[in-house]
Specification:
CATH class of the largest domain: Alpha Beta
Number of domains: 2
CATH architecture of the largest domain: 3-Layer(aba) Sandwich
Strand content: 15-25%
Radius of gyration: 18 Å
Mean pLDDT: 88
Strand order of the largest sheet: 3-2-1-4-5-7-6
Shape: globular
Number of strands: 7
Bound molecules: S-adenosylmethionine
Length: about 220
């Protein structure tokens, strides 16, 4: 929400700033409400009651390595939700034309398209990532940032998502994933991946851990 120009010009700068801050809080509140409503409809698919915090989004985006930033290949975000991590990735310097966000929920996919003009939003299932990208002639990506609740997925679905990611990620490029528990968000024996816990974020509800996974060479 932005203030109408007529209202804006009749206010002192301080009152204008306060009103603008209140409008931003309302906007954030709206996406939190939508997030919560979608969680009520499909808790297993949402995996969280509230969107990720700014701190968690930044911690995830920081894991995109310099060579992936300089690359021309796209950065993929899985499970964009209301866009907390999308915002973090863009603010970390990934240009919007290089960001492709895959979101299964059509309402959230619409919201992402409205909120972030310039990025590509695909409404679909992350299990079909490779096919969805191939339809756009994309066979290689720079990095994958995932907000998917992978541990809540049935094993077969989780394996399909991971296989799809490593079908397009070159050796050395990360799948970046957060999780709320102490255990790795991907069972170590399942895939031949190098797993590392790279950050802890206390300022998130609930506190979260960031992991990176890379294909064993
Ligand atoms: C924990 S929320 C994370 C949202 C956002 N990235 C954040 O961190 O605030 C998980 C998101 O993944 C989406 N999702 C769940 N399963 C999916 C799937 N198979 N393919 C694509 N998106 C999926 C949900 O709709 C939800 O928006």
């Amino acid at each position: 929400m932005t203030l109408k120009p007529t209202l804006k010009s009749s206010l002192s700068p301080i009152r204008r700033d306060r009103l603008q801050a209140a409008a931003s809080r309302l906007k954030r509140g709206n996406s939190a409400t939508l997030f919560f409503l979608q969680w009520l409809r499909a808790p297993g698919r949402m995996g969280a009651v509230v969107p990720s915090s700014r701190r968690l989004a930044d911690a995830m985006a920081r894991q995109i390595p310099p060579e992936a930033r300089q690359d021309s290949a796209p950065v993929i975000e899985l499970g964009g939700g209301t866009g907390s991590i999308t915002r973090g990735i863009l603010d970390a310097g990934i240009p919007s034309h290089r960001l492709i966000v895959l979101e299964r929920d059509p309402r959230l996919a619409d919201l992402l398209s409205q909120r972030f003009p310039g990025i590509t939003v695909l409404c679909g299932d992350a299990q079909n990532l490779q096919t969805l990208l191939a339809e756009r002639d994309i066979t290689r990506v720079a990095a994958v940032v995932s907000g998917l609740p992978l541990l809540l997925f049935p094993e077969q679905a989780r394996c399909r998502v991971v296989d799809a990611c490593f079908g397009v990620l070159p050796v050395g490029r990360p799948l970046i994933q957060f999780t709320y528990g102490f255990a790795a968000p991907l069972p170590p024996h399942e895939h031949l991946l190098h797993a590392r816990r790279v950050a802890r974020v206390f300022r998130n509800v609930p506190p979260a851990f960031v992991w990176t996974f890379k294909k064993a060479g």
